[in-house]
Design brief:
By secondary structure, this protein is of the alpha/beta class. Helices cover about 40% and strands about 20% of the residues. The strands form five sheets. An eight-stranded mixed β-sheet has the order 3-4-2-1-7-9-10-8, sandwiched between helices. Strands 12-13-11-14-16-15 form a six-stranded antiparallel β-sheet. Helix 18 (about 565-570) links the parallel strand 20 and strand 21 (about 575). It starts with a strand and ends with a helix.
């Protein structure tokens, strides 16, 4: 027999409930005997808590919220079942809401909400969900039966987090199941006292319910179905490059859950450890994934550390004083007075001199704990033997967990070395003699930074992770998103590098969130985002991210973001861009950016600036870095102009060729942007600067193909009309070239300190003569490539080619960072 448990997110919508029913049905079809524990529908427990508080405050909104809750459950019933069946099921649910309404009205009238009453209110969530699910299953042919757990699970009267009476509970469960053959649909979270007063097992207590039943029935396995692929090495809300663990030991799971890992509720393992029952954490939304098995002994794992967990926002209290040294019972008095006040201690450290004791607690108990401790030690404080309690707020606890740590020297040193390298100050450290857990307290503002740095260094062999902030969602940006999605699994398999787009911006809006950007969702994410595009805010978010190594990709065509390049590079952010604005800007700005790159560890990939995916810039880099001298650069750098001049003949008109290129989407919306020659000049400038030569755009003589009259045209259509009047002039140029056995090409040249871009006649022997369609070509003449220049030729324009160039630069950055 197995116990399945499904949490709130697993039953958050009718569609998810259908998915859960399919999972249960498939298991039953395999011949397994099951009992299934369910939580309340997603967010319902929180809503019930809010309704109770509103009623206590005599806020009439409690009734509005209650009606919304009624409508939500009615909607679930209607979607899951036909009209007639829905009416029947509603007949079972309506009395529950009537009772809940009466209870809340009573709270409203008497203005009292005790922990006992609150437990009763919260119990309705599971009663509602399990009634609906069990009835839906029955109507689909599953032999299911509803079991309200408080009929058999007995506890004390510590409301809110009751303690289970296992002797009585186990007897009740065994007696109940001995007479039942149907699949039991069990309410999680709720129980009752011997007097049948409703109690709850604490938030997350549905996991606990599953283990209570599993241990009592001595089942083969307990499966807890969540919305993640098992227990992860780190919190995915803090870092993206986490790995699902195939297995952990009971002790490791308890340590991770105690220190904030939300996958498993801490008391869950208590009933199963003695009977050595497997607990498997699985993903409702990825049922094919095996998940994480929690058992007595874990399988082989390549790292000594299993996971990094944390608790955010804690308070650290410190009791110090010379009068504590050598005094018996000081610690006992301290912890007893806190225990009597029901204040839970998260972490304890004590100096070997016995001069001080530090302990971490939840911040809401800070002032209360200080007063209680100072009252306990009032005489010692009055006599100066003990100092008043010191409190530090806004701190976080981080725990590094792994059973194999005790067999691996140097783990502590490595952990604290990583923190030191990242300028993270440690307020307190605790490590047990078992060496299963190294815990330390740091400032809350350093939490993400600490976990990201530890994750990257302690699990280095798992994968490298890059978090991409993408500016520009046009043709190039969208092509990049698509290509990265299509190729990232192959890239990971070959290199171990993981890429994830975590933020995106266009000219109107920007998106940051938990959902990764994909080809399927990026338009919707931007459209639904409430954040207006703000480059300063976008860059600030980027500078403060700690999810993997940050990469900024500027796929825009404007200089809006290039002004931030120096700042980003100085702060360790890698940049990849096809945008030419930065590298063709005024020389002092260009120099500042490359100086920032050279001063830090960050990389600047701009291979797509010239020739899109063609290896032009990187080849030139290799030539220069090898000590060779470039004497001449010659190239056709515009795919648009290449297409236009390759299409010209004595039988064609220049204006017709330009119009045709525009109709095919091969020009900018306004073809004058291509015909001006400035794009070609910028690309030549970038290559010349790559050779270490100081040059500005104004130093390049550029021949524009747009006449003064054409420049003044008010629209593209009027411009094309003006262009027709210039066909005769172009025809004459073509005729003259043809008579000489030559053809026209728009070529950029740097030689002998001079740079030009314009129309040239080239003979048949010229390497550019047979250029076709929209191909780019470049020729480098150097000391090595003197008699025969080095030539690179191929498709050098287009969104797909440019996107591929971006990915090439990304992988090159990852390789250089190994």
């Amino acid at each position: 027999m197995k116990i399945f448990k499904f949490g709130g997110s697993s039953v958050g919508t009718p569609e998810r409930i259908n998915q859960v029913i399919d999972i249960v049905q498939n298991e039953l079809n395999e011949g397994e005997k099951l009992a299934v524990v369910f939580s309340a529908f997603q967010h319902v427990t929180d809503k019930l808590h809010e309704i109770g508080k509103l009623a206590l405050q005599r806020n009439d909104r409690y009734n509005t919220e209650l009606i919304e809750l009624v409508n939500k459950h009615k909607h679930f019933i209607e979607v899951l079942n036909g009209d007639y069946e829905a009416k029947v099921i509603w007949g079972l649910i309506d009395p529950l809401f009537s009772s809940l309404g009466e209870l809340c009205h009573g709270i409203y009238l008497i203005r009292e909400l005790t922990p006992r009453t609150l437990d009763l209110i919260l119990s309705f969530g599971e009663k509602l969900s399990c009634t609906i699910i069990s009835e839906t299953m029955r109507r689909r042919g599953i032999k299911a039966e509803y079991l309200q757990a408080d009929k058999v699970v007995k506890t004390d009267d510590y409301f809110g987090s009751a303690n289970v009476n296992f002797e009585l509970t186990n007897r009740n469960i065994l007696q109940y199941f001995a007479t039942r053959s149907a699949t039991q649909i069990i309410t999680g979270f709720i129980a009752s006292t011997k007097e049948n007063v409703t109690t709850t097992l604490g938030r997350g207590g549905s996991d606990y319910t599953a283990s209570i039943f599993g241990a009592a029935l001595d089942v083969e396995e307990i499966q807890i179905w969540k919305d993640v692929n098992g227990i992860l090495t780190s919190d995915p809300r803090i870092v993206t490059d986490t790995k699902s663990l195939s297995s952990v030991t009971y002790e490791e799971a308890m340590e991770l859950s105690h220190f904030g890992a939300k996958v498993i509720y801490p008391p869950t393992l208590i009933p199963v450890v003695k009977k050595k029952i497997k607990v498997r954490i699985r993903n409702t939304f990825n049922p094919a994934f095996p998940g994480t098995t929690v058992f007595e002994k874990s399988d082989d794992y390549p790292f000594a550390i299993k996971g990094i967990s944390s608790i955010n926002n804690i308070s650290l209290l410190q009791l110090t004083g010379s009068g504590m040294m050598g005094v018996t019972g000081t610690a006992a008095r301290l912890f007893k007075c806190l225990a009597d006040a029901k204040i839970n201690i998260i972490l304890i450290t004590q100096a070997s001199s016995e001069h001080s004791i530090c302990f971490a607690i939840q911040p809401e108990n800070g002032d209360k704990a200080r007063k209680i401790v100072e009252e306990e030690f009032r005489w010692e404080i009055r006599e100066g033997k003990v100092n008043p309690v010191n409190i530090e707020e806004n701190l976080s606890v981080v725990a590094v967990v792994g059973e194999n740590m005790k067999h691996t020297p140097g783990i502590s040193g490595k952990v604290f070395s990583v923190l030191g390298e990242n300028s993270i100050n440690i307020h307190s450290i605790a490590q047990g003699s078992s060496e299963l857990n190294i815990s330390f307290v740091i400032s809350g503002k350093d939490l993400k930074k600490a976990i990201s740095a530890l994750n990257k260094n302690l699990f280095r062999g798992v994968k490298q992770s890059y978090s991409i902030f993408l500016a520009g969602a046009g043709l190039v940006g969208s092509a990049f998103i698509t290509q990265l999605q299509e190729n990232k699994d192959k890239i990971f398999a070959l290199t171990g590098v993981k890429y994830e787009i975590v933020a995106i911006a266009n000219s109107r809006k920007m998106y940051f969130g938990e959902e990764s950007v994909t080809p399927e969702n990026y338009k919707d994410l931007l459209e639904s985002s409430e954040l207006k595009s703000n480059p300063d805010e976008f860059v600030n978010k980027l500078l403060n991210t700690h999810n993997g190594t940050p990469v900024f990709i500027d796929a825009t065509a404007t200089p809006v973001y290039s002004k931030f390049y120096s700042k980003l590079l100085e702060n360790g952010v890698n940049i990849v861009t096809p945008n030419k604005n930065a590298n063709s800007d005024a020389f002092n700005n260009y120099e500042a950016i490359h100086s920032a790159r050279n001063s830090g560890k960050s990389k600047f990939g701009y291979g797509a600036n010239v020739g899109a995916s063609l290896p032009i810039i990187n080849t030139l880099k290799n030539i220069v870095e090898s000590g060779d001298t470039v004497t001449k650069i010659e190239g056709v750098f515009s795919g648009t102009l290449s297409y236009i001049f390759n299409s010209l003949s004595k039988d064609t008109n220049f204006s017709d060729v330009v119009t045709g290129a525009r109709d095919k989407g091969m020009t900018e919306p306004d073809p004058r942007d291509d015909l001006s020659g400035l794009d070609v000049a910028r690309k030549l400038l970038i290559l010349v600067r790559e050779c270490g030569i100081k040059l500005d755009l104004s130093d390049i003589k550029v021949e524009s193909l747009v006449s003064a009259e054409a420049k003044k045209a008010e629209s593209v259509e009027k411009f094309l009309d003006v262009l027709k009047t210039e066909d005769k002039s172009f025809a004459n140029k073509i005729h003259k070239a043809t008579e000489k056995g030559k053809k026209l090409a728009y070529i950029a040249v740097y030689e002998n300190g001079k740079a030009t871009a314009g129309i040239r006649e080239i003979e048949e022997s010229h390497p550019f003569y047979n250029l076709q369609h929209s191909d780019n070509i470049v020729s480098f003449t150097t000391g090595i490539y003197d008699e025969r220049p080095l030539i690179i030729r191929g498709p050098g324009a287009g969104a797909k080619q440019t996107a591929f160039g971006i990915i090439s630069d990304l992988t090159r950055i990852a390789k250089n960072n190994e």
